[in-house]
Amino acid sequence: MRNAQEFWETMYTKQGRIAEAARKHAGESLVSVAHHIDVQWMYCAYEWTRRDGAAGVDGVTAAGYEAGLWGNLENLVELLKSGGYRAPPVRRVYIPKAGGGDEKRPIGIPTYEDKILQRSVAMALEPIFEREFHDFSYGFRPGKSAHKALERLWKEVMDMGGGYIIDMDISKYFDTIDHGLLREMLRRRVNDGVITRVIGKWLNAGIMDGGQRIYPERGTPQGGAAAKQSVPA
After folding, report:
1. Mean pLDDT over all residues of the chain?
2. Cα separation, 160 vs 198, whole angstroms
3. Backbone phi, psi, residue 230, to 5°
4. Whole-model pTM?
5. Which residues make Cβ contacts (< 8 Å) with residue 96, sequence separation at least 6?
6. Residue 208 and residue 92: Cα distance in Å, rounded?
């Protein structure tokens, strides 16, 4: 019987080591990060990945992947480390934008296995890039949420005795991300070949849209590896 709680404790210990390395080498590029990712780490990534999402281009559901879970995770680690992983294209669907109207928002749906691998890499990168964020940045960060951002905003406004609130959004942000700049920003802090290689594969994997595979030169699919709201402590 595998001890899942022990896996989480080990993973958090490894994240602490990554964070300490990032602190000691602030402003430098870390070249040894991926060695922390093993099958136990990948299991934590699997546990952290939502299982109720739609299937990707391969049609494999969470239940189907779990039928041979440990073998699948061991193989996934091997493919990641050896460079043999082939990133599948993201399946694009369109959903109505909030607020009504005819405009729709494109959402990318990776395969379930790709979601797990994306989550595992994000778990390795978070301890490094968390140091780069301001305290008032709440988007897509561990331990933060939109609700906490609103609480912070309310407190700041109350402490000020009032003020102006400007609500702004970047039009089509995900569709216009420059791949070259993204790679450059990554390599400023991480130059581990395993990590940079798989991220490059994701950027080049393409998108299946209406049965046609396209390869955008800019942008990244909006969506991806959504995390479960709660995981073992």
Report:
1. 90
2. 46
3. -140, 145
4. 0.88
5. 103, 104, 105
6. 6
